[in-house]
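Deliverable D5.2: sample structural annotation.
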Amino acid sequence: MSERESSPWLYVGVGCLLAVILVMGSCVAIGWLGVRKAKELGEDITDPVKREAKVLEILGAEELPPGYYPMMALSMPLGVMEMAMLTDEPPREDEEGRSVPAELGARGLIYVSQRDFGGNRSELSAYLRGEGKSRGPLENLHTDVDFDERRFLARGELEVDDVAVLYASYEGDVGMHGHPDVDAVTTLFQPLCPEASRVQTGIWWVPVRERDGAEDERDVGASGRRDVEREADASRAEATDEAPTPPSPEELAAFLSFFELCG
């Protein structure tokens, strides 16, 4: 991959840095800090060891789920925002032999922990419960990654390592500047962490699977994790038998169990 081809990743980082600059103040100090952070970002992107270490640090993980690779990580000053991305595609080398992130992949994860500016935490919770239209922090997430909600599939609440997690699944595309869109089933989730001044957000996408006749309501079983309720709404009522099957609560819980969501 040439330097020109890997530029979308630097574009993502620069977008995040500009967002922080607008929020924080003091142009001179932040200008210096921005240059420094941009250099660190470049190292985290092209150094595979640093990239993996940073992703694991932000996710609070000792290891990644099988089949996933560290895509990129970003940490803003003063704890304003941290972001980690995973993909199922292994990293590549550019013309200079540097390791650079792969594409979005058929499976992937974006996880963001950021300060709660203006009630984003409660807005996101209401959205995932089907009680609000605003996606909270996802409305202003400056990562240049977006997804559509072509068809609603399921929502509910489960528990992972004593942390309640809200989730909602949709059929749609995941896209990013400079990368082809991925047709996927996307699950948005929010750990309800005790620290109320922060909001944690996750976007996990997997390949579209057609229904296999399995029951919509699934018993999580001996794992101790539970699916409180998978609510029906108007979007689901319109779904046909060809609607794809979203990940089950136990699949989502097993995936999230690799991470320390409230670390």
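Annotation notes: DSSP finds six helices and ten strands in the chain. The helical segments are 7-23, 27-46, 48-59, 120-128, 234-238, 249-256.
The annotation will be released with the project's public dataset once the embargo ends.
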